[in-house]
Amino acid sequence: MTHSEYNSLPKSEVGKGSQILLDRCDTEHDLYWKMAIEVLEVIEENNKKGEPTVMVVPYGPLGPYSRLVYLVNKYRVSLKNCVFINMDEYIGEDGQYIDYNSPLSFRGGMDRIFYGLIDEELNLLPENRFFPEPGNEGKVMEIIEKYGKLDMAWGGVGINGHFAFNEPPEPGEVCSNEEFLNRATRVLPISRETKTINCFMNCGGDLEGIPKLCITVGMKEIFMAKKVRMCMPRDWNAGALRRLLHGDITAAVPCSLFRLHPDAKLYAADVALTSPIPEIRVYNK
Q1: 3-state secondary structure 112-159
Q2: Is the peptide bond preceding residue 61 cis, with omega within 30 degrees of 0?
Q3: Which of 31, 81, 100, 179 is the most buried (most CB within 10 A)?
Q4: Are the beta carbons of 172 and 75 closer than 8 angstroms?
Q5: CB 186 within 8 A of CB 216
Q6: Quick one: CA dihedral 179, 184, 188, 193, positive or negative?
Q7: Is the pTM of this model over 0.90?
Q8: Which residues pair with 157 in a beta bridge?
Q9: pLDDT tens per residue, range 62-80
């Protein structure tokens, strides 16, 4: 399907025939509840079987975490046997994590919005809370191999179709789909597109406010997950949404590669399903 063809699809046709299952959500709040409930269901199922739950989790979108905190505390679901591997973090110019106390730090953020709000008798053990670490990138694969599984990887989709900080190849960079899928946890530069949308979302449009580097769990590890769950809650997701569902399967749109995964689902708010056909928006009429 060509670019103009998939961008012209009515909402009712979006997702039909794609290998990625589309779950339509009326609002972003519905999306956050659905994602939180599915995470909880995986944990509960493993708890009943006496098995650990191993997940690659994001810092954003943040919405599912407040719902997950509520559900865990209300229904007394133990996270003691969970292992959470956060998918990414910003890296400073010294090649190390940005400061834990920075408002942009995913490490600090996870403590503020999730771990710090779970009742202690239910909470993940501190030693089971991981981030990919500069200089110890192989640790993520070691954890997956230790437990012999990865139950789920879930997170938001970037404006260029990335998952975690698995940025697409730069223009002129030669990289096959197979090579891209073999990229493991690593430090890399953040793309211009990602810096732009992140500064719009998180620091008032200050392009210099977003770090130049990041560390990310690779597509190699993420593809090992039994379930991959993507979230697209906002209007600026619309262009990437149609490309990843109906365009070419290509490393240029990293999430399109999940059409090769046996269990990939996309939770999308209604605003993200809108056709991205160009128009000039008029504000403050």
Answers
A1: HHCHHHCCHHHCCCHHHEECCCCCCCCHHHHHHHHHCCCCEEEEEECC
A2: yes
A3: 31
A4: no
A5: yes
A6: positive
A7: yes
A8: 163
A9: 999 999 999 999 999 999 9
